[in-house]
Amino acid sequence: MPEDFANEYSMHTRTCGELRSGNIGEEVTLCGWVARRRDHGGLIFVDLRDRTGITQVVFDPDTAKDCFELGERMRPEWAIEITGFVRERPEDTANPDLPTGDIDVVVNECVILNESATPPFPLDDDIDTDETTRMRWRYLDMRRTPVANALRLRDTVTWSIRNALHERLFVEIETPILGKSTPEGARDFIVPSRINPGHFYALPQSPQLFKQLTQIGGIERYYQVARCFRDEDLRADRQPEFTQVDIEMSFVTEDDVMNMMEDVLAEVFEAVGITDVSFPLDRVQYADAMAIYGTDRPDRRFGMTLVDISDIVRDSGFKVFSGALANGGVVKAINAKGAGDWPRAQIDKLGDLALEWGAKGMAWIQFRSEGKVNSPITKFFSDDEIEAIKAALDVEPGDLVMFGADSAAVVNEVLGNMRLHMAHAMNLVEPGTHDLCWVVNFPMFRYDEDEKRYAAEHHPFTRVRDEDLDKIESDPLACGSYSYDIVMDGFEMGGGTIRIHTPELQRRILRQIGMTDEQIDEQFGFLITALGFGAPPHGGIALGLDRLVMLIGGYDSIRDVIAFPKTSSGADPMTGAPGEVSRRQLKEANISINM
For the whole model, what pTM was predicted? Predict the structure, then answer.
């Protein structure tokens, strides 16, 4: 924080983290919480903590007897105010682990501002208290340095983004929280309208339609740090409510959007001290990402890429491989360098994981460090085929080769997951390193086997590539799109598209994903109408703010960077949400519950 403002608008004259040897002799007033208290008989030492750090304060009965008596009563997490003089610590008592460790403050005035109940867990930085307990008492957990630092990092990232966009003439506009339910992929959270019985609002999954309307309205450069809500199954990087940085621009191409985003991120990374990311970023074709890494969000900080060996094993005697190829599938492999000496039981566990990810099994070959080749499948291959496999995968003694044989989708899914699992198991990623890239040119459509219809790969407001416009009805899976995801350390950190800006094309896309004209008019009539009023070509991107902060800070979950997160079941242990409501509230909202 700027020093000029650190002590304004406050009861204190200094903060607990700022005092140094240069302050010796000053009279200061500090406010904070008792982090630790140590009674050394004739003296009482208290580590006083505030948002900036810790200062040791000393209660000496020869200096202020009444303050010493208060010090005898103090317990952890009491809020106190002290006034005293800064002095140099004796050399043998200095604490090199604290920025303030060369000084302490001898107390001559003290006020107990509030006592505290005994905390339910220690508020030390290195505790191993379970996450649910810490969430139950989140307001206490926030007093711990790691949590406070995460929230301050989030503030720095958010401010840097806002500042960078403001300098580039973007206008921050808030869009409605209460909107209309539209099919956008996940389930909506719905809100009953009391004054419109039988009608419901929906909380926004994203501000997608409204940000497009700002472009039709002539804003040209819009952004918003937007709250979004999705009623979906949760995992480490998901919450039912989350924050995204939403950006939209008019009269742009996809290159314009990506170049803008890189310039903004360059300023963000400079603000947080990340120096190992250089711009411009690589642009990886979607098809290449899937073929090489098995995923559209590749972590490129390590190798172990997927290698297609279909031509090598096409005529082999191993029917698992030849059968998959005969059915139009592929055979791929990855080389886990250095895992060739793993025990058989450990490799069998990898096979169990492959089954969980959708494989029918997992073939493997150990090339042990002493030169021995171990595998139940090598008998089906000629020496030339084994040598060709070794050459294709750069095999050396000590390597473990794992195979996938099935449809391309299944093989990519299984080996892509196995690649990430092995990187974690073998510690292949150096902590604190980062890699960013764009994945571009996603397909416009995918076929939803459950719904038995086509669905939009990104969303149905994405513009089809000009060269594929005549394929929308005749060959939808061959249609590309003007789309781009930004990937950081194996996570989709943000994504965007160039939007459809003509009503005719928007209707064609919505029809292709199974909507009738009546449904289109009912759910998106306002957008179709708006597009007919000279809508400009426009596009944008949305960054997952929680995920970006998580990745920058090296945290395991977005819960670590959210002030008041929810559990994996969507519950808030602190407030008890979600909870029941009264019969009166249900009646007013015209809702009855059938259990």
Answer: 0.93
